């Protein structure tokens, strides 16, 4: 499979020109090699061999060795493409392999554990906010016996990946990367690198290496490859054609460059909100270079279509009882940039932002600050709101620095009464839940919502059923060990993210949303997509099923049986309310237990009842019928020219008598007080 995904497998990739800066490189003598080996790197055909898996962690730490290393945090296990360092210089999570000795004899070795045809290497320098280090030229060698076979120019900076394709492939079990010149940063010219090795395992007819073979295929017949915008649209159309009765494609807006934000709806009645049926959404591709979520959602829509047609009862139940919306690419402009560069060559940041340079994960209205400021200033807590916070006016103006994609998603949220959502990202393996923003702008601090316990349940539902997250032996991706947290964490306890979609969704709408970090590798190679689908298939389905936990019902007018929109649903001891949809139906996500629930609406008397949530995968039905307040009911009847019913006449008579008694009592008290005052004077 190709490193750079394209329609034509014989596409040619030009190797980037790299010119070493003479004043800043080591003047050490290069080793002698056979004259038959070419020292130049011209235009090369893209190799068909995939990455061995240094970035994706398929290559284990024990398969990496080095001639020397400065310390544990700069050991050979850190020499992986795109690995990210911690913020503290000198900790155990640094951003590259760095040799202890500065000479041309230093090397990083990769053990493929079986005979492999090596076709190239992708190289980077050290990731660090404190130090700059990269190698500007390399020799490559293999153990057969050890001999150098290719020389290539290296990096010009620490972050841009450089593809070094070999003029001729070489077969070996081991390969060594041997830096020859490096950036001289004053006296701090360290030899550091991060790498990915491209290679194809040779056939193993006698099954000698069967013990170490990991599964690479999926049992599901899906389109496992990276899809650009046109291919994504074509695939969605094919799913719609295959299952027209349960699917619908619609657009919620356009990107900055005019690409449509397509959504696939899956429901037994597509295009219509059904009374009592919850709305669910998955959003992927907020950061365009985090491509796995995009492909998983394309796989998911194919899978659900196929399984529905086969009669899989689990899928049939989901389709009939849930209205599902899949947005595979929130940032199509960013994805196209990363896609054109190639899955291993896009680096850590290319395509992350919108075409305008906006990070959409920080681009939603900061309602957290609005809420916390109100809490600090308001002395009467009864006047505080805890849900449906309005968007500040300055955010909605045309001059506001808000991406067109963000505006489209906000409008989508406001038009559909979503209940549950997940935002699919990449670059880590963890599930985070709100709040994402710390209260006092601390770099990180646990900042829970009123629904902390249910959010932890949601995060656990995904993490515990994910094959990678649930593996107790997996190593950390970059610089934080989330196994210590059972692979779930409060977003603000990881790092401060003001303006996140998760927090906005919780504070502005009824929808609960978490972020799922799917893989260490933001843009996995196409050959890894089948196993990534296997890792996440069950998690994607289980998480969708959580939309049916808690209570649901319809708030109706007692007299007319019409649904009441915007009725407020309050749960005792949980300081976060939700509201009913246009038809009066509502959904309140809750853990199992007994709850006292109150429904209120403008012009109606409040109504309370006790609702018991069980451990079943079905919600408890808690309907409400509200009685209009007499004044409101009188206004409605008189406005229609109707006759007052006897119960309302009696109620109005009672209210008049109560008012008369109160008024008479007040008058008598004033008269008695005046008489006492006169008697005192006399």
- Provide the CATH superfamily of the largest domain: Zn peptidases
How many domains?
4
Uncertain spans, ≥5 residues at pLDDT below 50?
Answer: 1-47
Outline the biggest β-sheet.
Answer: 8 strands, mixed
CATH topology of the largest domain: Aminopeptidase
Q: State the total count of DSSP E strands.
A: 25
Tell the overall outline: elongated
Taken as a percent bin, the fraction of beta residues is: 15-25%
Mean pLDDT reading? 87
Q: What is Rg?
A: 31 Å
User: How far is it from the N-terminal to the C-terminal residue, by CA?
Assistant: 111 Å
Total of DSSP H or I helical runs spanning 4+ residues: 13
Which range best describes the helical content: under 10%, 10-25%, 25-40%, 40-55%, 55-70% or over 70%? 10-25%
Q: What is the second-level CATH architecture of the largest domain?
A: 3-Layer(aba) Sandwich
Structural class category: alpha+beta
CATH top-level class of the largest domain: Alpha Beta
Strand order of the largest sheet: 10-11-13-12-14-17-15-16
Subcellular location: Secreted
Family: Belongs to the peptidase M14 family.
Protein name: Probable carboxypeptidase X1
Pfam family, one: Peptidase_M14
What can be said about this structure in brief?
It is built from 13 helices and 25 strands. It is of the alpha+beta class and 682 residues long. Strand 15, helix 8 and strand 16 form a beta-alpha-beta unit.
Walk me through the topology:
Layout: E1 12-13, E2 44-45, E3 64-66, E4 97-98, E5 108-124, E6 135-143, E7 146-153, E8 162-182, E9 192-201, H1 229-242, E10 247-254, E11 260-266, E12 279-284, H2 292-310, H3 313-321, E13 323-327, H4 332-341, H5 367-377, H6 393-396, H7 404-415, E14 418-425, E15 430-433, H8 452-463, E16 488-490, H9 491-494, H10 501-508, E17 512-517, H11 529-545, E18 551-557, E19 568-571, E20 574-579, E21 585-588, E22 593-600, E23 607-613, E24 620-621, E25 624-626, H12 630-639, H13 646-681
Parallel strand pairs: 12-13, 12-14, 14-17, 15-16, 18-24, 18-25
Antiparallel strand pairs: 1-2, 3-5, 4-9, 5-8, 5-9, 6-7, 6-8, 10-11, 11-13, 15-17, 18-21, 19-20, 19-22, 22-23
């Amino acid at each position: 499979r190709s490193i750079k995904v394209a329609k034509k497998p014989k596409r040619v990739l030009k190797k980037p020109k790299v010119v070493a800066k003479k004043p800043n490189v080591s003047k050490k003598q290069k080793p002698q090699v056979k004259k038959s080996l070419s020292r130049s790197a011209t235009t090369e055909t893209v190799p068909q061999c995939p990455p061995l898996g240094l970035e994706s962690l398929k290559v284990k730490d024990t398969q990496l060795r080095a001639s020397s290393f400065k310390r544990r945090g700069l050991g050979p296990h850190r020499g992986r493409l795109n690995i990210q360092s911690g913020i503290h210089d000198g900790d155990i999570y640094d951003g590259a392999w760095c040799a202890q000795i500065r000479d041309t004899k230093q090397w990083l070795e990769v053990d493929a554990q079986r005979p492999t045809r090596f076709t190239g290497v992708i190289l980077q320098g050290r990731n660090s906010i404190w130090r700059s280090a990269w190698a500007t030229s390399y020799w490559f060698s293999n153990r057969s016996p050890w001999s150098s076979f290719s020389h290539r120019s290296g990096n010009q900076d620490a972050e841009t990946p450089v593809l070094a394709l070999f003029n001729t492939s070489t077969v070996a079990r081991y390969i060594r990367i041997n830096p020859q010149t490096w950036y001289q940063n004053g006296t701090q010219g360290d030899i550091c690198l991060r790498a990915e090795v491209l290679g194809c395992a040779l056939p193993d007819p006698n099954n000698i290496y069967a013990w170490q073979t990991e599964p690479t295929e999926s049992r599901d017949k899906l389109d496992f490859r990276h899809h650009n915008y046109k291919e994504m649209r074509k695939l969605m159309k094919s799913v719609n054609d295959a299952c027209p009765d349960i699917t619908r494609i619609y657009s919620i807006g356009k990107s900055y460059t005019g690409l449509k934000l397509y959504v696939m709806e899956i429901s037994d009645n597509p295009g219509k909100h059904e009374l009592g049926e919850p709305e669910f959404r998955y959003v992927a591709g907020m950061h365009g270079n985090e491509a796995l979520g995009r492909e998983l959602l394309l796989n998911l829509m194919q899978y659900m279509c196929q399984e529905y047609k086969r009669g899989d009862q689990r899928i049939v139940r989901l389709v009939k009882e849930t209205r599902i919306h899949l947005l595979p690419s929130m940032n199509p402009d960013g994805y196209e940039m990363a896609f054109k560069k190639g899955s291993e060559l896009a680096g850590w940041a290319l395509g992350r932002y919108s075409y305008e340079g906006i990070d959409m994960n920080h681009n939603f209205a900061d309602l957290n600050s609005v809420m916390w400021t109100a809490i600090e200033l308001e002395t009467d807590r009864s006047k505080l709101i805890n849900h449906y916070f309005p968007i500040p006016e300055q955010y909605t103006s045309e001059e506001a620095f808000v991406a067109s994609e963000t505006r489209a998603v906000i409008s989508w949220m406001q038009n559909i009464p979503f209940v549950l959502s997940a935002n699919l990202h990449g670059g880590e393996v963890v599930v985070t839940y709100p709040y994402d923003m710390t209260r006092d702008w601390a770099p990180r601090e646990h900042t829970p919502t009123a629904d902390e316990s249910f959010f932890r349940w949601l995060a656990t539902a995904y993490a515990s059923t994910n094959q990678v997250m649930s593996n107790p032996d997996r190593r950390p991706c970059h610089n934080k060990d989330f196994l210590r947290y059972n692979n779930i964490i409060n977003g603000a306890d990881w790092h401060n993210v003001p303006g996140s979609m998760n927090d906005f969704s919780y504070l502005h709408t009824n929808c609960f949303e978490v972020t799922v970090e799917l893989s260490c590798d933001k843009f996995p190679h196409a050959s890894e997509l089948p196993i990534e689908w296997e890792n996440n298939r069950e998690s994607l389905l289980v998480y969708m099923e959580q939309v049916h936990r808690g209570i649901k019902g319809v708030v109706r007018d007692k007299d007319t049986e019409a649904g009441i929109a915007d009725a407020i649903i309050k749960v005792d001891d949980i300081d976060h309310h939700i509201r009913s949809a246009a038809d009066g139906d509502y959904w309140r996500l809750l853990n199992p237990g007994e709850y006292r629930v109150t429904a209120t609406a403008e012009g109606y008397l409040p109504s309370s009842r006790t609702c018991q949530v069980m451990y079943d995968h079905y919600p408890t039905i808690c309907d409400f019928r509200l009685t209009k307040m007499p004044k409101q009911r009188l206004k409605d009847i008189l406005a229609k020219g109707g006759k007052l019913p006897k119960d309302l006449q009696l109620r109005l008579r009672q209210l008049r008598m109560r008012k008369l008694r109160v008024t008479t009592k007040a008058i008598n008290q004033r008269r008695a007080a005046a008489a006492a005052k006169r008697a005192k004077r006399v």
